[in-house]
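Renewal narrative, Specific Aim 1. Our central claim is that a sequence can be written position by position from structural information alone. The example that follows is taken directly from our test logs and has not been curated for this report. It begins with the structure tokens describing the chain, in the order in which they were read.
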């Protein structure tokens, strides 16, 4: 219980997955015969976590789910859909392509498994059923955080089947060859993905970005507020750790944080700057770089250049200090 208490705020999807696993585990306990010594641990865990989780979730997760942002809704087969509402693939073919050997082995592995293993995987099936029919946040893709737990339990089940099958092969070379072939089939897609990342040539940060971050780290006040684009990799925040007016909407926006005022102020200060808005938000520094012009093609840097000194400059950016 102590380990699980912070889960709703640390990782809400893991908390939900744990609830479903424990629910199936509790049903298994009842199926074996309701005895006080076996039921009390489940009831104690439910009581302690239930009280603490409710206190955490009422003002945050539950409030956000019911505030009209469509965080909680029915949407079957969401993972297989496209923006125009059509399906990418047949339901089963989609999972075969994306999970591969483990998915193909799930049914025989479940039949082969011992009763306790089936019950454990039953918790995974409960997660799959819920995650396939219900979306818990505006960003559909985040339901993958639930499916990862189901997939992990499926890997355990499939691995047990393969180990037991190849244990019956007496010739060690054939056993090793068969297991190696299964590992290759199950993992080669991941190897290709890692290889793509190793040989890719994109950069999060350039040398100019690093130089900017170093200068900010050494010379800017620790509580300084910078006007930047809302890029999630802006060096001001990601490398130098300084506050920015508006961060990326890709993260906690989908969990109920309203960025509307900050985003509107950021856009206004780049496209239609004025001293009143700068003072209202207490902006100390204004950055112009490629991400700013990529976001705001009509950014009015000349307005700042006419009024404020350049605090820092390199080949990739200019920073004006608001004085």
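The sequence written for that structure reads:
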């Amino acid at each position: 219980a102590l380990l699980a208490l912070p889960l709703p705020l640390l990782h809400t999807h893991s908390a939900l997955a744990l609830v479903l696993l424990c629910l199936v585990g509790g049903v298994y306990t009842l199926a074996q015969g309701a005895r006080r010594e076996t039921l009390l641990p489940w009831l104690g865990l439910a009581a302690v976590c239930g009280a603490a989780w409710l206190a955490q979730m009422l003002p945050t997760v539950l409030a956000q789910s019911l505030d009209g942002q469509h965080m909680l809704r029915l949407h079957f087969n969401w993972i297989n859909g496209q923006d125009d509402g059509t399906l990418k693939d047949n339901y089963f073919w989609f999972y075969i392509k994306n999970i591969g050997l483990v998915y193909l082995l799930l049914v025989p592995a479940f039949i082969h498994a011992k009763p306790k293993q089936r019950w454990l995987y039953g918790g995974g099936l409960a997660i799959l059923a819920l995650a396939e029919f219900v979306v818990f946040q505006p960003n559909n893709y985040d339901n993958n955080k639930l499916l990862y737990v189901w997939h992990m339990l499926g890997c355990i089940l499939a691995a047990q089947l393969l180990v037991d099958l190849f244990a019956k092969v007496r010739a060690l070379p054939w056993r090793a060859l068969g297991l190696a072939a299964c590992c290759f089939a199950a993992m080669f897609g991941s190897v290709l993905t890692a290889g793509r990342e190793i040989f890719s040539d994109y950069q999060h940060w350039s040398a100019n970005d690093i130089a900017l971050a170093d200068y900010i780290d050494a010379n800017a006040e620790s509580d300084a507020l910078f006007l930047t684009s809302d890029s999630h990799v802006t060096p001001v925040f990601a490398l130098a750790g300084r506050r920015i007016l508006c961060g990326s909407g890709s993260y906690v926006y989908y969990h109920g944080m309203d960025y509307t005022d900050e985003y509107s102020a950021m856009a206004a200060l780049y496209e239609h700057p004025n001293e009143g808005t700068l003072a209202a938000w207490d902006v100390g520094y204004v950055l112009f770089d490629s991400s700013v012009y990529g976001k705001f093609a009509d950014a009015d840097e000349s307005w700042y250049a006419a009024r404020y000194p350049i605090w820092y400059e390199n080949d990739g950016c200019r920073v004006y200090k608001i004085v």
